Amino acid sequence: MTLELTPGCRLPYMGTEFQIGEAARRAAVTVDAIRFYERRRLLPKAPRTPGRYRLYTIADVARLRFIRRVQALGFSLAEIQQLIELRERRNGACAPVRDLLRAKLADVRARLVHLHALENELSRDLRRCQQQLRQARAGRTVPCRVLAEMERQRKSEPQEVTRGRRT
User: Fold this and answer.
1) Is residue 40 part of a domain?
2) What is the CATH number of the domain that holds 32?
3) Full residue range of the structural domain in which residue 147 is found
4) How far apart are CA 152 and CA 22, in angstroms?
5) pTM above the 0.85 mark?
6) Of 90, 116, 138, at which residue does a domain stop?
7) In total, how many domains does the chain have?
8) 99-121 burial string, b = 16+ CB within 10 Å, else e?
9) pLDDT tens digits along 17-42
């Protein structure tokens, strides 16, 4: 006979159910994170003792660790939900997981391009500041050109309108 743990199935073993604090410690997450994951349905609602304490299983702790790991990889809560469903399905999950990984990698690469452009802009502004400070030491003081340039760029960008006010 084979027993398979299915979603929502809880097998109470002596000493393998934990209150929320212990589950949080074992999964290296906060108690608030566990409650949040339950509200977002990333983690099934834990059964409660007669004293109203939540009880979590080893499988719950493993799921919490999984959530923490994929969140650290930058996956959104919706993507994490998809990955959890694929994890539970086991068979046939590889192609959809690959597609999620490809999409996440493309997103990371796009952010890297943006961050590289930001790095270049900040480096250029820093060089301008350094140059202006050298001129100031020589006795010539002028308003900060970097701030003036930032202000000009801000004025040339379209302004957002929020509730009838410009921001």
Assistant:
1) yes
2) 1.10.1660.10
3) 97-157
4) 55
5) no
6) 90
7) 2
8) ebeeebeeeeeeeeeeeeeeeee
9) 999 999 999 999 999 999 999 999 99
- pLDDT at position 16, please? 85
- Give 71-86 pLDDT, tens digit per residue: 999 999 999 999 999 9
Closest CA to 34 of 14, 51, 19: 19
What residue type is assigned to position 136 of the chain?
A: A
| Residue where a domain terminates, one of 90, 119, 142 | 90
- Residue 63 domain flag: yes
Query: Is the pLDDT score of 88 beyond 70?
Result: yes
Is the pLDDT assigned to residue 164 strictly greater than 60?
A: no
Amino acid symbol at 17: E
Show the DSSP H helices in the chain as ranges: 20-27, 31-39, 58-72, 77-89, 94-137, 145-156
Q: For 20, how many CA atoms within 13 A lie in the half-sphere containing its CB? A: 18
